[in-house]
Amino acid sequence: MYEIDLHFMCSETALKLFIEKYNNIYRSGYRGEIKIIHGYGSSSLNSTDIIRQRIRSFLLRNKENLKMRIDINQGVTYVTPIKILPYKFKKWFFYSKF
Q: ∠2-10-35 over CA atoms, to 5°?
């Protein structure tokens, strides 16, 4: 089983990395479950689960491309690839504000 660990990233970087790794795994021919480790939010700003919310929201919007399974561990989500994920972002999407 493949794992994609998104701990300690900003949500934009985590989403971009997830899509890149998912698409690479799909292109390799693998069709089993992929474990996404995003954490459950205890170390995020004000204990907000920003990465988990963003990733799961993205997965729900793309359910024709994958199957999603939520684990009892809230810091983990599983996906099974069906198709390549779209990779369309606005140019400013990945810049962080200082």
A: 15
21's tokens: 């790794």
pTM to 2 decimal places: 0.82
Q: Is 16 helix (H, G, I), strand (E, B) or coil?
A: helix
CA distance 17 to 20: 5
Over its length of 98 residues, how does the chain's per-residue pLDDT go in tens digits?
999 999 888 888 999 999 999 999 999 999 999 999 998 865 555 555 789 999 999 999 999 999 999 999 999 999 999 999 987 755 444 444 43
d(CA 50, CA 86): 21
What CA–CA distance (Å, rounded) separates 74 from 70?
8
Q: Is 92 helix (H, G, I), strand (E, B) or coil?
A: helix
